[in-house]
Write a structure and sequence with these properties.
Elements: H1 22-26, H2 38-46, H3 48-57, E1 59-61, H4 66-86, H5 92-104, H6 110-127, E2 133-145, E3 149-160, E4 166-174, H7 179-183, H8 189-201, E5 210-219, E6 227-232, H9 236-258, E7 269-270, E8 276-277, H10 281-286, H11 292-296, E9 306-308
Parallel strand pairs: 4-5
Antiparallel strand pairs: 1-9, 2-3, 3-4, 5-6, 7-8
Length: 314
């Protein structure tokens, strides 16, 4: 007997209506996640079923969580700011604040717009005068295809005109900053992958000496945001470990496919999820007898809280 979801509603319905799409409000296209980036590979070990539902079936929540939406908007605000700087705008911050104006003019995102205004104001107060950068690229995608496939979209690549060197810059937002958060980037798959790709896909001899990745973090959980910056330059040994890791994940992915993408029960919520939930928690909760192949069938109706992208096996 077919079970249906009852008593559940999308968590981001606002006063009985569906929230606007963030990209429509921003007036920009959704470029999507990097095709074979760190999120792709980490989901293999987070939960094989989550990985398959996302990257093979093509499901996604209709209403992404607020932290994700805020992070997307924050990236876009900084992209506009640094593109203005790259183009030689007299006041590149003006266009960035114009983006925030659009959010504040939207009933669905007004509070988020206020938060982003505080974040950008703090960011500029902290770095605008001291950062003397030549912007080389904004939102640059690199992709490697060989023994494995790996891709990354680098937020920013700059030359530091004061301290010298070529740097990749990664924008981050976080509820709070701790020493543990800052220290963890040395072994972060995303950061390691960015450096590995730069060294394997770019002729760095044409640029100033590469110095590493600067991670810029702005907090979201306080009335007055705080900024933190940490710098990472993985060693040759770290990059070799990254390569071994992704090769292993590639083999693991093939084995999990043969096992029909099992669930990693226990990774659905709680501590393993940072006290959040897997994006498919409701799907697995309400349809525990279904397997990935069932959801692959176009005739299988998905709950209203999910949408089905074009199915492209990757």
């Amino acid at each position: 007997m077919r079970r249906v979801i009852t008593g559940r509603a999308p968590t981001t319905l606002i006063k009985g209506k569906v929230r606007s799409d963030i990209y429509d409000v921003l007036g920009t296209a959704n470029s999507g996640a990097s095709r074979r980036g760190s999120t792709f590979w980490k989901s293999v070990t987070s939960c094989p079923r989550e990985h398959a539902l996302t990257y093979i079936v093509g499901l996604q929540p209709v209403y992404p969580g607020d932290p994700l939406v805020l992070g997307l908007a924050w990236h876009h605000v900084l992209d506009v700011y640094y593109r203005g700087m790259q183009a030689g705008a007299v006041n590149p911050a003006e266009a960035a604040f114009d983006v925030i104006d659009k959010l504040e003019d939207s009933a669905d995102f007004r509070d988020m717009g206020h938060k982003l205004r505080a974040m950008l104001t703090t960011y500029l107060d902290t770095y605008e005068r001291s950062d003397k950068w030549r912007v080389i690229a904004v939102e640059e995608t690199l992709e490697y295809v060989g023994a494995f496939e790996y891709s990354a979209r680098l937020d920013l690549i700059i030359e530091d005109l004061v301290h010298g060197g070529l740097w990749a810059v990664e924008h981050k937002s976080a509820n709070a900053v701790s020493s543990g958060l800052l220290d963890n980037y040395q072994l972060d798959l995303q950061i390691l992958g960015q450096v590995w790709l730069l060294e394997h896909c770019v002729d760095l001899s044409k640029y100033p000496p590469f110095r590493g990745v600067r991670i810029n973090i702005v907090t979201t959980g306080a009335v007055v945001p705080k900024c933190a910056r940490t710098e990472v330059l993985p060693s040759v040994e770290h990059l070799a470990a990254f390569e071994r890791s992704v090769l292993g994940l590639n083999r693991l992915r093939g084995a999990l496919e043969k096992l029909a993408w099992p669930q990693y029960l226990g990774h659905c919520a709680g501590y393993a999820r940072g006290y959040g939930r897997c994006q498919y928690f409701d799907l697995c909760h309400d349809y525990p007898d279904r397997v990935v192949a069932d959801w692959q069938d176009p005739a299988t109706e998905v709950p209203v809280t999910y949408t089905r992208k074009t199915q492209t096996k990757v």
